[in-house]
Specification:
The structure holds 2 protein chains of 2 kinds.
Chain A: H1 10-20, H2 25-45, H3 58-63, H4 66-99, H5 105-117, H6 122-133, H7 138-145, H8 160-184, H9 188-196, H10 201-230, H11 233-239, H12 246-254, H13 265-295
Helix pairs in contact in A: 2-13, 4-8, 4-10, 5-8, 6-11, 8-10, 9-10, 10-13, 12-13
Chain B: H1 2-9, H2 15-53, H3 55-60, H4 67-99, H5 104-116, H6 119-129, H7 132-135, H8 139-163, H9 166-175, H10 180-191, H11 193-209, H12 212-216, H13 222-230, H14 234-266, E1 270-272, E2 275-277
Antiparallel strand pairs in B: 1-2
The chains are: A mainly alpha, B mainly alpha.
Chain lengths: ~300, ~290
């Protein structure tokens, strides 16, 4: 096993272990400065009166009432839709890619395309969909020609469902990228063993594949939730603020559109987002720990 | 490989393998349905945008005011971010794999944080605490992008390292008298080539496409320019974003193709961006015993 496991005097071992940690100091310092300090500043600012600098709860109170509370709820509703559906769709695509021959063109094209589309967003993405499913978009016209005008049937690109549909454009590829490693943990031998014992496909998925992949699947969906939760540019471009989303509200604080005395409400909103995501992170870690039992 | 051999063996009379063979033949059907659906969803918007932009706009993109400045700034940021990310993440990931394997899960959780901390929150905090001399330059963005790139860089490096028998490689290198630095440069890095490439490309793609932070930091990177230019000419701006998307993709495809060809030749583990496989040794059906 590990050479460090050989028994030796306790003090020397402790020293060795402490010294071993020195190798991750640069990384730790960078993360603390680039992530920890800014997050800390937001958290502190959330409890600060912008004029006097005294500690106060008024920012948090404002941020959890009225339009801001509504913003949190709408953001969560959107994130649930825009993480579960792309999660299922991306899972299916990921499995299709996984079963493709290694090194095949299909596999290479699909995986690289996922890498590109997962980073696509903002005004260009909004525009793509306005040209497709806007009131005069191409797909809208095609559908109208075959007698199904989506706008007469309750579809609207600029409401919550429409935004969720647009979000799928980067959420599905993200799901493909993060779920692929999980499929590698699905040993072909298990499938063969199941087949040898006479299991049908659905039995294999119900008893073997499903339970093994479930923690990874849920973990990835949580990740998608976080991604949808923090998306900013796309919704801003598509709806120009008609849907109250927390990220957009924070953005307008940063752009200086604030009432006097409320400058720090944006920080309280930011803190709220981080807290919601922190809860999810804990869940994610627990799920990963469970998944790791099978994957290694 | 195993599936192909399995199908050949399935010519027998036992009901189990027969059913398995039928199932394997039916696999492509659902696969095609899924992929066609995905193709429809992903390609029609591209086609719609292409029609709106018109072919002529593509020629005009290059000549627009601000185009080259924005593109150069984005490219500079991409280079800075990639160099910093690799310099930070490669030694850390290798070190943790070798010396602190117990911290791997912790590192994984920490590097996933930037995906879930909203960029809009992060940039708000950064603008609040960053010293003035950093805030007055666009390169502050490069420093923060390193944080944003961490999840992607770490995951591809981690996948690449897991495909190697790192311990054996390092022990062999040490027993031949190589020092730690020499081992890293001449043994580990060449074996990680594909993983390094995918980390590079994912980082570059992220920087070239990032909008939220750059626009709130008020610097005109390429994506910010595209949006600003949209006010002047919609078709040209659309053409520019399609062009950017296409070029990034071709670049990525090129690197993965070259990378996997080279990996096959050197015998290292094959990495396609995230997933990783040990080389098949042609032993179908032995895993169950």
């Amino acid at each position: 096993m590990d050479p460090g496991a050989v028994p030796r005097p306790a003090r020397a071992a402790a020293l060795r272990r402490a010294w071993a940690l020195a190798g991750i100091v640069p990384f730790t310092v960078y993360v603390l400065l680039g992530l920890g300090v800014p997050a800390g500043a937001i958290a502190y600012g959330a409890f600060q009166n912008p004029d006097t600098g005294h500690l106060t709860l008024s920012n948090v109170t404002t941020a959890t009432h009225g339009i801001y509370l509504h913003g949190f709820l709408v953001t969560m509703e959107l994130s649930v839709i825009a993480s579960v559906l792309p999660g299922i769709f991306g899972f299916a695509i990921g499995y299709a890619i996984h079963t493709a021959r290694r090194g095949s063109a299909l596999r290479r094209i699909a995986i690289t395309a996922s890498g590109v589309f997962a980073n696509f967003g903002g005004v260009p993405l909004a525009f793509l969909f306005i040209a497709t499913l806007g009131t005069t978009g191409i797909a809208t016209r095609w559908l109208t020609d075959i007698g199904f005008n989506p706008y007469d049937n309750g579809f609207n690109l600029y409401d919550l469902g429409g935004v969720a549909l647009v979000y799928m454009y980067f959420q599905v590829p993200l799901m493909v990228l993060v779920i692929l490693p999980a499929f590698e943990g699905l040993r072909p031998a298990w499938r063969e063993a199941a087949a040898n014992m006479g299991a049908r496909t659905w039995q294999y998925w119900r008893r073997v594949g499903g339970p093994v992949l479930m923690p990874s699947f849920l973990g990835c969906v949580l990740l998608l939730f976080g991604s949808a939760f923090s998306a900013y540019a796309t919704a801003e471009a598509l709806t120009s603020g008609t849907i109250p989303l927390t990220a957009i509200q924070i953005g307008s604080f940063l752009n200086g559109n604030v009432l006097a005395g409320q400058q720090n409400v944006g920080k309280a909103l930011g803190l709220g987002m981080v807290l919601i995501i922190a809860v999810l992170m804990v869940l994610y870690t627990l799920l990963q720990r469970r998944a790791a039992r099978w994957l290694r | 490989m195993a599936a192909v051999i399995g199908e050949e063996l399935a010519g027998g009379t036992a009901p189990g393998p027969l059913r398995a063979a039928r199932r394997r033949r039916s696999l492509p059907v659902w696969r095609w349905i899924i992929l066609v659906l995905a193709g429809v969803y992903f390609l029609i918007p591209l086609y719609a945008a292409l029609r709106f932009a018109g072919i002529a706009s593509f020629g005009q993109v290059v000549h627009q005011t601000g185009f080259s400045d924005a593109l150069i700034l984005s490219l500079k940021l991409a280079v800075i971010t990639t160099v910093l990310t690799l310099a930070l993440m490669v030694p850390t990931t290798v070190y943790v794999h070798l010396r602190l394997p117990r911290l791997r899960r912790l590192l994984e959780s920490v590097t996933i944080l930037p995906i879930v901390i909203p960029p809009v929150v992060l940039i708000a905090g950064v603008l609040q605490v960053a010293p003035a001399y950093l805030k007055s330059t666009p390169y502050l963005l490069g420093l923060i992008y390193v944080i944003l790139a961490m999840p992607f860089a770490y995951r591809s490096l981690d996948a690449g390292l897991r495909a190697l028998d790192l311990r054996t490689l390092v022990d062999a290198s040490n027993s031949l008298g190589a020092g730690w630095r020499s081992t890293l440069w001449r043994v580990i890095l060449p074996n990680l080539r594909t993983a390094l490439m995918s980390a590079t490309v994912l980082t570059a793609a992220l920087v070239l496409g990032e909008f939220t932070m750059a626009s709130l930091d008020l610097y005109q990177t390429f994506p910010v320019w595209i949006v600003a230019f949209d006010q002047t000419s919609g078709p040209v701006s659309t053409a520019a974003s399609l062009l950017a998307l296409f070029l990034t993709w071709v670049f990525l495809l090129l690197i993965v193709t070259v990378g996997s060809r080279r990996a096959r030749r050197t015998g290292g583990g094959q990495v396609d961006l995230f997933s990783v496989v040990r080389h098949e040794t042609g032993r179908p059906g032995t895993g169950g015993s």
